[in-house]
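During the reporting period the student researcher (J.K.) took over the structure-prediction task from the postdoctoral fellow and processed the backlog of single-chain submissions. One of the processed entries is reproduced below for the supervisory committee.
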Amino acid sequence: LQPAGLLHGGVHCAVVETLASVGASLWLGDRGQVVGVVNSTDFFRASRPGDRLTSTAAPIHQGRSQQVWRVETLNEER
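J.K. obtained the following structure tokens:
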């Protein structure tokens, strides 16, 4: 948690990076290796201890040398 008692944004970034990298690796298979290049995260609502969050990753672009993935995290209310 950050000092205000909210879930630290770095936790979200780690989840986003993990989901996008795993999805990209599964798609690419044995044709190469995947590494994260950019992680841009926007926060619309704070998460507090006890909130149940679900993250979903989906490809936006899967090209020869780069992929772009969108990862969305929602709480139980949305």
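The committee noted the following: Helices lie at 9-28.
J.K. will present the remaining backlog at the next meeting.
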